[in-house]
Amino acid sequence: MAGGAVSNSTYTSNAKAGTKPGNYLFPFILVTSLFLLWGLAYGLLDVLNKHFQEVLNITTKRSTLLQGAYFGAYFLMALPAGMFMNKFGYKKGIIMGLLLYAAGAFLFYPAARALNFDFFLLALFILACGLACLETAANPYVTVLGAKETSEQRLNLSQCFNGLGSFLGPIIGGQLFFGGDNKDLTTVQLTYIVIGVVVLLIAAFFYRTPLPEIKEAEVEGEAVLKDTRPLFAHKHFVWGVVAQFFYVAAQVGVGALFINYVTEYWHGVSNKKASFLLAVGMALFMSGRFVGTALMRKIAPNKLLAVYAFINVLLCAFVMTGNGALSVYALIAVFFFMSIMFPTIFALGVKDLGKHTKQGASFIVMSIVGGASVPYLMGIVTEWKSTAVSYGIPMFCFMVVFYYGWRGYRRS
Fold first, then answer.
1. What is the three-state SS of the chain?
2. How far apart are CA 44 and CA 42, in angstroms?
3. Mean of the pLDDT values across residues 96-105?
4. Whose CB among 67, 85, 111, 278 lies 3.0–4.6 Å from 93's, allowing a Cys bridge?
5. Where can this protein be found (predicted)?
6. CA–CA separation, 203 and 219 (whole Å)
7. Residues 380-411: pLDDT tens digits?
């Protein structure tokens, strides 16, 4: 990373882990696989939103409660997950998250049989509690699996696989949920049963695989060791929580009404085609992370974050015009420039927190609750004005992200 010095940080590992300190390649690969899992869950979410509007005959505003349940779970579960990991370690936190993920996925089966939207909200909430555990564990774990100077690059690389899952989700959902004359929830049942089984198998694999338990507090360097300030005295962390809240709010808002926007402003486009256009956006999202990871070797992460956020402010302004296919292309382009935002904000926010790293990670994951509120607000604006105008809300959110990349990231 530009401007980075050679790290003299060292980490102590649990002797039972079976992995030599500093030999973090295999643990990095294994934990990175988790990013694919929650990317897939998120990629399916926006397709479910439109599918439930039609099959369960609910309004756009009510369907956005899916995002409310999904991201509300992050808010409620992140701190308990952080406390659990502080006591039992990263590995057990990951296994707990996988078990909750599987339980929520299996509950989709009775929810579909009952044709009950509220039951789906409960199932999705439990599933997302598992994802909150995984994110609270995996994101900070990746940042400390190596030199702290390259933590943003590592996290962006891992998040590339989150992008892959987010890309596959709309393709799978569009093909299965909108394929043919499918007007029931049978394919939803089957999809989530398969997901639940796969997640259980991965949980078993984690249970049988040794992982190093890294103690961040013991070895962040002399300056960090001497820093006795409480967590919220670290201004870059506080601004990181704020920026992450607004970023996730923007990301979820952009995706939640994507299919509605495309079918409304691009005449003749079906739900199925709009789902594949969403997949194109997710493909740009994924590729953007690879590109961003490479660019960070030459450009400071905070500067790249600020530039990408500013571009998205301009793109959202054009999306608000509702200018046919051109505005849809602009909306798709937003995904590329969102790509680096979550991991970069996360890595900048937890940097040099020392013993506060796990707790700080919990608060940043809690800030994902921003994704629970904005889609509903966009639904209200859509019913009051139009879908195009509702994209002014993500535009404002990207302004906050721009500020964090410009000034808010600075560590005192």
1. CCCCCCCCCCCCCCHHHCCCCCCCHHHHHHHHHHHHHHHHHHHHHHHHHHHHHHHCCCCHHHHCHHHHHHHHHHHHHHHHHHHHHHHHCHHHHHHHHHHHHHHHHHCHHHHHHHCCHHHHHHHHHHHHHHHHHHHHHHHHHHHCCCCHHHHHHHHHHHHHHHHHHHHHHHHHHHHHHCCCCCCCCHHHHHHHHHHHHHHHHHHHHHHHCCCCCCCHHHCCCHHHHCCCCCHHHCHHHHHHHHHHHHHHHHHHHHHHCHHHHHHHHCCCCCHHHHHHHHHHHHHHHHHHHHHHHHHCCCCCHHHHHHHHHHHHHHHHHHHCCCCHHHHHHHHHHHHHHHCCHHHHHHHHHHCCCHHHHHHHHHHHHHHHHHHHHHHHHHHHHHHHCCHHHHCHHHHHHHHHHHHHHHHHCCCC
2. 5
3. 95
4. 85
5. Cell inner membrane
6. 30
7. 999 888 999 999 999 999 999 999 999 877 87
Closest by CA to 249, choosing from 34, 399, 77, is 399
User: What is the rounded average pLDDT of the residues 147-171?
Assistant: 78
**Fold entry, domain 18-408:** Growth Hormone; Chain: A; (1.20.1250)
d(CA 371, CA 253): 7
Q: Tell me the whole-structure pTM to 2 decimals.
A: 0.72
In contact, 51 and 188? CB cutoff 8 Å: yes
For the beta carbon of residue 16, count every other beta carbon within 10 angstroms. Answer: 9
Amino acid at the residue 193: I
